[in-house]
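Budget justification, computational time. The allocation requested in the original proposal was used primarily to generate structure tokens for proteins on the priority list. As evidence of use, we reproduce two of the resulting records. The first is shown immediately below.
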Amino acid sequence: MPFTHETKVGALVIAALGGLVWLSAQSGVVGTSLGTPASRHLSSTFNDVEGISVGSPVKMAGVPVGEVTAVELQPTGNAIIRYTVRKDVPVPADVTAQITTSGLIGERYLALVPGASTLSPEGQAILLPPPATSIPSAGGAGAGDVAGNFGKVGEDLQAMTGTLRTVLGDPENAQKIQQIIDGLASFANNVNAGSNGTFAKFDNLADTLNRLASRLESGDSTLGALLAKDNGQGKETLANLNAAMADLRGVMSKINNGEGTIGKLINDPQTADKIDSALDTLSQVGERVEQFRTEVDFQGYALTNESGIGKGGVQVTLQPRPTRFYVIGASADGFASTSRNPSDARGPYFGRDFGPETKYTAQFGHVFQDAIGGQDVAVRVGLKDNTGGVGLDTALPTGTAIGDIELSSDVYDFAGNNTPGSDVPHWDVKAKVNLWEKMLYAVTGYDNILSQDYGSPIIGLGLRFQDDDLKYILGKQL
């Protein structure tokens, strides 16, 4: 009994699903469509986790190696930070976790700091064994710690000046200092009396200074005129200086008493709180911007069963959080274009209704972390090619230089409105294989699996730009 077309298609689908299950079992890893590599789940306990939230980066030696997945408050008053680190990152056995800051008011992140014993006597790296999941913490280091150190320095200076004030204000100590000065004067006289020619130049210098002092005292020269008691201009200048100093003292007194705008600003205890709040807000904004990820993907492929028919489009993925993303895009339908081409009136598709030539996509996506075998699965729901649809994204690691093979499946157009003579959903299965720098990739799969007339294997190429690529391109243009 010959097999019908439907039976052959059903067998192909079952074989494809069986192959995917076998590959998943062999690899033991399933990732997301966003290219996230397999990760290792770790945790650390801290007394203070201020500035750390879900999505905050995890770095080692300044290189991003993972991200925070949860921050949990414990009954003891401490907080546990749970985070992931890529499995390809070697984690030393004596590593510690520390909350730190990029610059003075930069983003807060979790730093993994290797210890001093990272190598064995034979020179081999000592790594954290796979069963271990807890990393000891080493506290925090940031702008608050720097400010605290400045505060301690200020306290030390205040204590030093207080001690100096006490020493100089004591009458007994003042008398001792005077005795030291008298002793130095006596020593100078003795040296001068015992030397005939050695200090002759010093005598000449003293005579010169005496003459200068006489000129100043008599009011000769500009400086002398200013200092002379009987000179009107000198008295006026000194009076002006005294008045300016009095005004300055008055202004400083008002500021110290909290008068005026500056005085209220400096003496208001809420000013420091407002400044701290503003810095915290800026830090949070910076963290949100750092976490936001963008990808622009251009793709085109040919249907191998249909001569001259191809599809292509552009898709933008916006991911504000590790578990939330949005997809918008537009695609060109080769069937619809061919059916409207008047020069191909004798073609098999001419005059048929495949819907608009340009179709649009707008979907909401959620990443279910640790959904299968401790790994993530991404699900998309929304508009797919002008119809309602649902999609699933995953990835299979190859362990080679090409990286993960990204897999996606979409089911949409459930009533078959864009496929003439069909009442079954449109089901696509695709696989992406990186060819160069995660930007250029090959795409293959099967389009419209359930359609007997229009289903076909596909093959094509794609080009995508992620955050760093887009920043570089925009920077060049600006």
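The second record produced under the same allocation is shown here.
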Amino acid sequence: MRVLVITRNLPPLVGGMERLLQNLVLGVTEYADVTVIGPRGCHAHLPETVETHECSNKLAGFLSGSTLTALRIVRKDRFDVVIGGSGLMAPLLFLLKTLFKCRTLVLLHGLDIIVDHWLYQRVFVPTLRHADQVVANSRNTKRLAAKKGVPEERISIIHPGTHIPEQPDAERKGEFLQRYRISFSRYMLFAGRITRRKGLSPFIRKSLPTILHACPDAGLVVVGDNASDSLNRQGEKAEVLAAINEAGLGDKVMFLGQVDDRDLETAYACATVHIFPLIEVPGDVEGFGMVVIEAAAVGTPTVAFDVGGVADALDLVGGPLIQSGDYTGLIKKITKYLLSEEITSKHPDEINDLISWNRYSNSFHIALNATTPH
């Protein structure tokens, strides 16, 4: 099988979608000849066997560059399936299908269905209806796609997988805590892009003071930064800093910024609990919640609000799902973890098969085969 993958969501850009697409490419190379059109610098993060064509990392530059590149190489070579890494690629896939009769598959993550921009809704979303196969990351994303007119019979749900790391030992944890000067006896972890929908500033205002009053030796560690590379650039860090200053908790919150994969795994493993205090934001949505399964892969539980597609992630790994906006319930559950060191309801060994990249790759292989003509 010859497969062309077109996506801006690859390293060196940083985020859950980027890790997902990188590992998807790695998985597909096990059973297909893969060519990738991706952002500048992606070649260094993919196997040598993958033919790579790099375009600008900037959104407008990537859209124009990937279109010209795809037209050139698809005119020259035949591909069994062309994969778009997000709804952003839907118009290009529609063009390739129209001109060259390509079979097409689009990955949907949630935001790429509902992003609040008139041009996107009028041009990008309608072309999704013409894809031969759509892979949604959660039941909520499938619902959103169907609501926009994508035929339900063409939508498959495949929950993302994650790398299952070796469990960090005491030495590795100690080195991490010392290097980042984390002195809290235990901490809550927030991981991901700091956007409005992640709900970090409301959490700090409505929950953190009460939690720290009950657990004075605890703290909050934040891994991530503003979403400068995302489709919806709702940077929120300034609001988060303002909330911290208002609450007088400057010594109780630490920002580590962007970290590499090894440090991210260790940050999860050192945390007592991972928090995901999502809020409803018009024109934005949490499609699945990769951070939930990343935390679970090292045995760290997540406490989350039931917003977007996060319920699917917590169904896989087990853990409390709090009604949206119930900050009292959120406080009680987080405090319980911090005080009792309650562990996740499923041991990491029990959930590895549910959240591993192998499971995702095998499921995606089935969807890919369903896209190609027999």
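A brief technical remark on that second record: The domain at 170-353 is CATH 3.40.50.2000 (Rossmann fold).
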